Amino acid sequence: MTQNPGRRGFLLGGAVLGAGALVAACTSNEPAAQASAPAAAPAAGGANDAPGEKVVIGFSAPAADHGWIAAIAKNATDAAAQFSDVEFKAVEPTNDINQQISAVESLIQAKVDALVILPNDGEQLNQVARQAMDAGIPVINLDRVFPDKLSYRTWLGGDNYGMGVAAGHFIGKTLKDKGVSDPVILEIQGIATLPLTQERSKGFADALKTYGFSVTAQQDAKFTVESGTQVASNLLQAHKKIDAIWNHDDDQGIGVLAAIKEAGRDEFFMVGGAGSANAMRDIQADNGVLKATVTYSPTMAGSAIKLARLVAQGKGMSDLLEQEVPQSITLASATITKENVQKYLPLGFES
Predict the structure, then answer these.
(1) What is the distance between the alpha carbons of residues 82 and 288, in angstroms, rounded to a whole number?
(2) What is the pTM of this model?
(3) Higher confidence at residue 165 or residue 36?
């Protein structure tokens, strides 16, 4: 999945948007200019989608060995295809740091008009992103953040802390409404050492605390189906009574749900994470333990392509008064339940 970018941007109150949709933030990294006349009214919604100057957008991301990452590439490709004025230049996806650096360098040498980069590791690709910016190529940093703000024009990503908060509130409120006291709440993380996982866990703990609850046991499952099965099996054996489970990742959730089915346990409910289509279908069917999932949508890649196009064409976002695209945009984490799942199904990715 992703490394935590920190909750640096303006947290947007909204849900997951479609592959081409943008989310608006309210701040810019540049000081407001003094003007003697009133600011011009923003363009009508959709005006920025009209064909403009032809731009070449380079794209680099990790290899699609995970459903979420595969959906990142698809959303980027689909968004670029919507515009006749965009030439999409994607390099071979890779999980090798040096290969990704070389691939980005090839895009710099090709003198693309903008770059969208989801780095395997923000710190290790920081320097090559800085090279692009120093060469006058604006970089849209997708999700895993570059530590040097001079290495990107705009950062766009999800809210890991917000995922935990959303999951914690759903579980906390559900248990309170049922009158459960001293509940057994389990947490199945992705990779425990990653900052993103730590942010998710902190948000979860903070939200549960508002209901007087806490996590009973916590274990990481490495973002894989196999580990999901193993970890869930261990937790089920260790806890004869469970009230709720939060599983951070719907991809590994396939294994978690398989272990639950194998054990024949159904006395608890579960919340997933990221918003996969298969998880949404399970929620819609409402015939198992999975009752909700909290989003961390790969549609952000489509939004990043739209942002790159606007920046390369010197445009702002038509719903904002400012003339420039914001420097940082944090997407909100929505809670998907059987009541609203139909709205989100078209945005789900296949695990």
Answers:
(1) 38
(2) 0.81
(3) 165
